[in-house]
Automatic annotation (TrEMBL):
Pfam families: SUKH_5
InterPro entries, per the entry: Knr4/Smi1-like_dom, Knr4/Smi1-like_sf
Highest rank taxon of the organism: Bacteria
Domain Knr4/Smi1-like: from-to ranges: 17-116
Name of the protein: SMI1/KNR4 family protein
Length: 128
C-alpha cells in the first residue's frame, strides 16, 4: 500500500482516520461496500484535501462526508448513482467523481458516466 505512504509524504491535508466499525456503518448507510483502496484511505486519513481538490471521506461533517454527499447526490440523480460513492465534486458543470465497488473511477455528469480508467489510489495519486 505504497499509495498511503505517497499521500502521507505529499502536501495533501489529511484529517484523522476512522475505525473499521465506522467504515462498516457508512457502508450500511450507502448500501454498498467501499472498494479496498478507498477503504484504506478513509481508515488512514478520514478525508483529504490536495490543493483545491477535496476527496470526500469519513470523520468529517457536511459535504466532505462521503455518506451525506453520496445520499444527497443519489436523490438528485434519481437512481443513476445507486452503486456508486461520490468521492469528489469538481464544482464545475455538475461534474462528480464517483467510484464503484470494483474500485473503478468515473466522471459523472448529467446522467452520463465516463470511465477514467483509474482506481481510487491512482486517481488520488494523480492529484498529488
Amino acid at each position: 500500500m505504497n499509495y498511503l505512504a505517497e499521500i502521507k509524504s505529499s502536501d495533501a491535508e489529511t484529517f484523522s482516520g476512522v475505525s473499521e466499525a465506522e467504515v462498516q456503518e457508512a457502508e450500511k448507510r450507502v448500501g454498498m461496500a467501499f472498494p479496498e483502496t478507498y477503504r484504506a484511505i478513509v481508515k488512514e486519513f478520514g478525508s483529504l484535501e490536495v490543493g483545491s481538490d477535496e476527496i470526500f471521506g469519513l470523520g468529517v461533517e457536511g459535504y466532505l462526508n462521503v455518506v451525506e454527499t453520496t445520499l444527497k447526490e443519489r436523490q438528485i440523480a434519481e437512481g443513476k448513482l445507486d452503486g456508486y460513492l461520490v468521492i469528489q465534486n469538481l464544482g464545475t458543470e455538475g461534474i462528480l467523481i464517483v467510484v464503484d465497488e470494483q474500485d473503478r473511477v468515473f466522471e459523472y455528469q448529467l446522467g452520463e458516466f465516463r470511465n477514467l480508467l483509474s482506481t481510487t489510489a491512482e486517481y488520488i495519486k494523480g492529484l498529488l
